[in-house]
Structure formats: structure tokens, C-alpha cells
Sequence to fold (150 residues):
Amino acid sequence: MISEGTRRKRRPAFLLAVCMVTAAIGAWSARADDTLYRELGERVNLVRIVDYGTDLWLVDARIKDTFDNLNIERFKGRLVDQLCELSGGPCHYTGRNMYESHKGLHLDRAQFNALVEGLQDGMDKYGVPFRVQNRLLAILAPMEHDIVTR
Fold:
């Protein structure tokens, strides 16, 4: 039989173990919430959306010059990874943060709006419901402060 003293000594270790397991489950469930990712149509649809949006951006007078001297395929891959990760998907974005990526470009709100409109057009074209589009855009909106510098 275990004495009361032994139980008291074990209690902190047990509580620590419970806390660690609870924290791990919480972190796992936060990552496991891939609802938005799935509603966007997963990676295959994100690729379509980014491809379509990029085609629009490359001909949009407001933003096309931003893509001069840019490796378009690399850009598209990074953007897909970023959207995938931000929406709860299994991807890992390895690019620079938005400030570093856009500093020196002196982008204005019209250029930012062109980017958002291209994403929306792509999401419309590939069947992403409006409410799902808004959830993704709400995640992206705070990035405007790092992108728009004039």
C-alpha cells in the first residue's frame, strides 16, 4: 500500500505530466483544425486559385510591374504554401515575412487591392463560398500594414 507521503510526492509529477499532455493535445488540436483549408479545396484548389490570380496580376496595370524580374513559379509556390499554412493545412511557408518581401517596393493601397481582387476572382472561379473567402481574407488583412508602404 502507498503511504500518504509517497502520494504527495508523486502528485506534482503527476500534475506536471497531465499539464504537459493537455498542452500537447491543445497544440495538436490547434494545428489539426484544418477546416478552412479543406473548405478552400485543399492544396489542389489553392494552386488553381494562385495560378488564376497570378495570371490576372501579370496583366493588371495596377500591379503587373511588381512582378518584373520575379521568378513567377517560385512566387506561386511560396504563396500556395503560405495560404495553405495560414488556413490550417499541412504546408510550411519558408519565405520571408511580408515586410521583408515587400520593403522597397513602395506599394500603395490600389496595388494591394489588385492582389486581393485577384485572389477573390480565383476563389470565385474555383467555387470557394463567399463566407470561406471572407475567413481567409480576415487572416490576410493584417498583412496590409507590412505590404502597403505609401
Notes: Residues 11-30 have pLDDT under 50 and may be disordered. The first helix runs from residue 4 to 32.
